[in-house]
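<backbone_tokenisation>
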Amino acid sequence: MKLKVVKNILEANERIALLNRQRFKEAGVFVINLMSAPGAGKTSLLERTINELNSRLKVGVIEGDIVGTEDAERLARLGIPVVQINTQGACHLDANMIGEVLDEVPLRELDILFIENVGNLVCPAEFNVGEDMKVMLLSITEGDDKPSKYPLMFKESSALLINKIDLLPYLDVNIERIKKDSLTINPSLRIFEVSCRTGSGLQQWSSWLLSEVERKNKD
């Protein structure tokens, strides 16, 4: 019975995700579902990325948190449209939550829309919200065993950003193991080593995003 209920939930979510995807396609906006554990640096990454892209792309954000608006307020100070979703306990954003706020997002004015998911290494990977791609952020402070412990997140993502590499000299973590295990799970995964504190690697990440948006516009 439990398996049937879960299947029904996922099927209902997928139907709504298809509707969201159609709206994104009609608006011509590229959508990224950004996922990570709590504290990995998603909002810091978005701040850096928005500053890198803002002169070339029109950026918007849907911000997901269980409660609170602190992250949305940080991003709104950059002068971009930001819409907050509070899940009130749910550990992920789903397609219905996204669909309910799309009228508040100026989709046709945007080139790229980031959906910052709730901090969690499990549930967000299971729910399609209509995005073009899922992107995962992993902090090296979380250790090098996360690909083997949470493989679905790595399998479902198109890109992996390994963050806080400026802390490598101070941590007993094997970044090569992270990359090797991640690529074993998902050989097509694009990997970027970045530091949101120093800015290292972020230009390569932003250039890749630009190329992905341009590629979609040509399709």
Notes: The chain has a mean pLDDT of 94.
